Amino acid sequence: MPSHAFRTRWTTTILAACGSVLSAFAALPAQGADEAANYPARPIRIVVPYQTGGLPDIAARLIAPKLFEIWKQPVVVDNRVGAGGIIGLDVVAKANHDGYTLAMPSSGYATLPAISAQLPFDPRKDLTAITLTVVGAYALVAPPSLGAKSIKELIALALSKPGQLNFASAGIGSGTHFAAELFKDLAKIDVVHVAYRGIPDGLTDTIAGRVQFFMPPLASATPLVKDGKLLALAVSRRVAGYESIPTMAESGLRGYNWDAWSGLMAPGRTPRAIINKLNREITRILALPDIKQRIVALGADSAPSTPAEFDKLIAEQIVMTTGLARRAGIQPQ
């Protein structure tokens, strides 16, 4: 049996150790606040894991100069293309969690678990939400030469030629891929997927008629629709200024619920104080009249959110796209 003196010394040592641990934890919020107070102290990089011209790229290039005006630190937009966004996202997932390397993914981020059996990062843990930035409509566009001027006409054409029509995407698992897969699922049509490296390539071949339709963000297709090079048969959601284009629901596909979005994310374990500081500044930027006007002109809306709201959206869409991939026969690679 240990002596009373030994028990006293042992108890005192344990209490002292516990006190040190508790003191360390108590200091963490203060340390995070200090980091946020000094942030940013050097240039920030926003990695856009897709080609230029898409909604995430547009959002990043609108936000970057405004952050520079506020913080007087350069904000560089870095397009890292490949593997449906995985290459660029992996760069951010493995970056230091200090707020200096950020990602601007699209709604395709929520499809990654459905299409990739062995991702180099965990979308649920290795990247953390800062805020939604922009929400826009996907537009189903087709070349005038196709002859279909409405969703009903396109569905009728596809039903008359099962397996003969092709649709483009900006890559397997991209938001554009699942936008069209949901259309295909609800319309009960047999059409063939053709994956491209990005939105510009898909638009080029749709204009040329090498594929029969494509569902890019309306923001990316707007100039081509205005020039008459493509017809917009429907949009995924109502967009101010584009009331003449029916929504998918108005075209008879009432279960259609898939919009284009972009959002800002940071590596997992980035201090909450830095996340909150970025969220506050970007929310203010997205509320600026000139920014809102430029986004609306592209067929989208400013859509800042809390980190928790953005996390919830991603979680819900991961569940939805996993089920859609299973029904479409898309096997994780």
Please tell me about this protein's structure.
The chain folds into 2 domains: 44-136 and 260-328, D-Maltodextrin-Binding Protein, domain 2, CATH 3.40.190.150; 139-235, Periplasmic binding protein-like II (D-Maltodextrin-Binding Protein, domain 2). Helices cover 45% and strands 16% of the residues. It contains 11 helices and 11 strands. The strands form 4 sheets. The protein has a 3-stranded parallel beta sheet. It has a 3-stranded antiparallel beta sheet with strand order 10-4-11. A 3-stranded parallel beta sheet has the order 7-6-8, with helices on both faces. Helix 1 (4-37) runs parallel beside helix 9, helix 2 (55-71) crosses helix 9 (272-286) and helix 6 (175-187) crosses helix 11. The longest helix is centred in the first third of the chain and has 34 residues, at 4-37.
